[in-house]
Backbone:
């Protein structure tokens, strides 16, 4: 059981995270470079706290803490913060960093209601390198797909504003050019696709080795559907040279499958239901 | 001495008057030379643009200086003063500095916040420097004006939003394509408007310019001017499939491109976005084209709307800039005040140097056997004593220069060191307190020059 003597790290992280998101929002409204830099600094602190928390929990439980729902969501937000730091530093897309972290922050906060209990039901079979890689890759690909999804949403928004000549809003000023949005959503999907692929293959191998019947599992089936949707997306883009609104919609559909997959596994799946 | 600004601009004078008082760069240098030789004008510089002709001077007396400039204008252009006197404005002292800073920030320009004026003020400075018609004060004031202008543009958004149709179009293009340097442009129609647009676009760095026109020869002519490629009218549809930006301004009375044509083009383009600008009246491009997926169509009214909105945005920045100007004026004023300390510092240095030289001479007489190295060491250390003693008084003098009772304090320091007599050597100093000038009653009319649409 969790001793809880390092819960303060998590609490502190939430406070700093809140401050960072608020400052990013302020920068969005007022375009203040100084505030933006402070927000970025705070986000680095959030990352340090998260890493510390992750480390402490790993030390206590003596396995990679990505097994329970709390742990996976936490891991998700950790990767999200890592990637948005990366994007903020190298590409300066403030609007995206703000949106991504607004979501990241809500995950971290909602996560507090789930509770940090360790499910004793998780059997020993769940430990192992193969499984660790399967889970962390799956979560990682979800984060990258999420960012790709955000870019596509911004793309559609931008197209709408340009078409309807609603070009005087603050949002329009902050939104990156269409071309950039299109390129980033494509690149991120391109990165996430093989990661998810690898994760599914490794998961299947692990299940096969351990003799667990997963072939009819809902999560297993939907995951392959996700792969197919994103496969179509990438094919359209790479082989047929598509660009634009329809492609962005396809990307959003792909992400909708990911969300559905997550919820389905929670309620229906015979196997993945503890996650 | 006073700072004086005399001039005319688009606010005070209609273009018929302004065009009479223009200087090209050679005439400007010549004018500066004549002015410099006039009585009561100590420093002078001249800003000459199409919308303003202004003299920035340091004068002995405000009224005299102003009259001299009017006399000069009368003689130089051979126009009787009664004809133009009512269009002139004059600012002196604080107001003059404020005016110069405002001009540099583009607050006084026809297009609020334009940056061309900054370059023009820099040219003014260079020209005056070359003719050596400016001295200490203008050499400080003009560069400071340029830096104030730069500061306004970095600290506020006054220059951010496009206020001409072509820039508005280019900005929208950047919003769609990010960068324009690998983009292809198609110009439909080879008229005057097309030429202007092609010029703006090619200067913003597009890769290729295609020109299409009903008569191929005209297209060829225009294309040659921009290293472009003339395209036959029958190849219009194929060309549309290739380019990213389309600018149309033909004299056609009917739509040149309709929705159906664009739909088939977009299939060929595989939905790659295309930005279409229709600046023709009557319109060339069917408004229904905008409904086609991936097409962003803007007509002249919509671009005009962007320009209007941006102008309002610029106007919102004015208060912030005025605060910056106020700040910079205080800086300039305190710099002016430090000028008063310079005679004192000079006198102090002079006196100590005298003492030092005399002492060293007598020292060398008493100790004739000193080697060069020993002499050097002694010189260095004795010099250091003087500098260390003088350091605090000089710093204090500079500090008190801005105070109200600066004069008494400086005199006290002079008394302490016994340099009063030297201080009495008169040094002219610019006075910054406000002095009303009877400026002619300027009619508050706005004589805006007609601004072309592109």
Residues:
């Amino acid at each position: 059981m969790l001793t809880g003597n390092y819960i303060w790290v998590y609490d502190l992280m939430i406070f700093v995270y809140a401050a960072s998101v608020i400052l990013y929002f302020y920068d969005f409204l007022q375009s203040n470079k100084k505030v933006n830099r402070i927000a970025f600094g705070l986000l680095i602190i959030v990352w340090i706290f998260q890493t510390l928390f992750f480390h402490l929990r790993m030390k206590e439980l003596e396995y990679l803490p990505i097994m329970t729902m709390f742990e996976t969501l936490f891991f998700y937000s950790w990767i999200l913060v890592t990637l948005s730091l990366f994007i903020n530093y190298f590409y300066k897309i403030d609007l995206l960093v703000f949106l991504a972290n607004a979501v990241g922050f809500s995950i971290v906060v909602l996560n507090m209601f789930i509770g940090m209990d360790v499910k004793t039901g998780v059997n020993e079979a769940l430990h192992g390198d193969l499984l660790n890689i399967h889970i962390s890759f799956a979560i990682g690909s979800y984060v990258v797909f999420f960012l790709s999804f955000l870019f596509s949403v911004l793309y559609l928004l931008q197209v709408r504003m340009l078409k309807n000549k609603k070009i005087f809003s603050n949002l329009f000023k902050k939104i990156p050019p269409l071309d950039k949005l299109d390129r980033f959503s494509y690149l991120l999907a391109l990165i996430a696709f093989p990661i998810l692929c690898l994760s599914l293959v490794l998961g299947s191998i692990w299940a096969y080795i351990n003799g667990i019947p997963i072939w009819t599992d809902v999560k297993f089936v939907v995951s392959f559907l996700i792969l197919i949707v994103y496969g179509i997306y990438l094919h359209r883009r790479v082989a047929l040279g598509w660009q634009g609104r329809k492609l962005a919609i396809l990307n959003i559909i792909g992400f909708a499958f990911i969300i559905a997959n997550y919820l389905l596994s929670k309620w229906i799946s015979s196997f993945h239901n503890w996650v | 001495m006073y700072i004086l600004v005399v001039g005319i601009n688009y606010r005070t004078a209609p273009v018929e008057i302004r065009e009479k008082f223009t200087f090209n760069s050679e005439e400007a240098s010549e004018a500066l030379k004549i002015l410099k030789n006039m009585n009561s004008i100590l420093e002078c510089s001249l800003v000459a643009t199409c919308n303003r002709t202004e003299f920035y001077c340091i004068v002995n007396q405000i009224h005299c200086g102003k009259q001299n400039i009017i006399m000069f204008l009368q003689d130089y252009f051979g126009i009787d003063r009664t004809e133009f006197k009512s269009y002139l404005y004059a600012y002196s002292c604080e107001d003059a500095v404020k005016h110069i800073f405002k001009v540099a920030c583009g607050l006084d320009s026809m297009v609020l916040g334009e940056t061309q004026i900054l370059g023009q003020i820099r040219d003014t400075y260079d020209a005056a420097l070359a003719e050596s018609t400016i001295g200490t004060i203008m050499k400080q004031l003009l560069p400071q004006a340029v830096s104030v202008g730069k500061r306004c543009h970095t600290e506020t958004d006054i220059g951010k939003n496009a206020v001409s149709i072509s820039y508005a179009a280019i900005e929208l293009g950047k919003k769609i394509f990010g960068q324009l340097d690998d983009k292809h442009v198609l110009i439909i129609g080879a008229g005057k408007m097309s030429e202007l647009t092609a010029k703006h676009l090619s200067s913003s760095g597009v890769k290729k310019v295609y020109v299409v026109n009903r008569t191929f020869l005209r297209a060829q002519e225009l294309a040659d001017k921009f290293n472009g490629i003339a395209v036959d009218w029958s190849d219009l549809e194929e060309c549309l499939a290739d380019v990213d930006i389309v600018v149309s301004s033909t004299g056609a009375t009917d739509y040149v491109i309709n929705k159906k044509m664009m739909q088939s083009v977009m299939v060929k383009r595989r939905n790659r976005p295309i930005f279409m600008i229709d600046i023709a009246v009557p319109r060339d491009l069917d408004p229904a084209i905008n409904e086609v997926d991936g097409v962003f169509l803007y007509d002249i009214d919509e671009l005009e709307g962007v320009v209007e909105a941006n102008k309002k945005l610029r106007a919102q920045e004015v208060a912030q800039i005025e605060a910056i100007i106020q700040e910079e004026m205080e800086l300039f004023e305190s710099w002016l005040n430090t000028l008063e300390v310079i005679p004192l510092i000079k006198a102090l240095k002079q006196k100590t140097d005298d003492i030092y030289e005399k002492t060293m001479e007598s020292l060398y007489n008493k100790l004739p056997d000193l080697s060069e190295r020993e002499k050097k060491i002694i010189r260095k250390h004795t010099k250091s004593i003087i500098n260390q003693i003088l350091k605090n008084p000089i710093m204090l003098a500079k500090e008190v220069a801005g105070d109200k009772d600066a004069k008494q304090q400086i005199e006290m320091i002079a008394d302490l060191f016994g340099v009063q007599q030297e201080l009495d050597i008169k040094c002219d100093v610019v006075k910054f307190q406000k002095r009303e000038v009877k400026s002619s009653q300027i009619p508050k009319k706005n004589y805006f020059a007609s601004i072309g649409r592109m």
Remarks:
- The longest helix of chain B spans residues 318-366.
- Chain B touches chain A through 20 residues (CB under 8 Å).
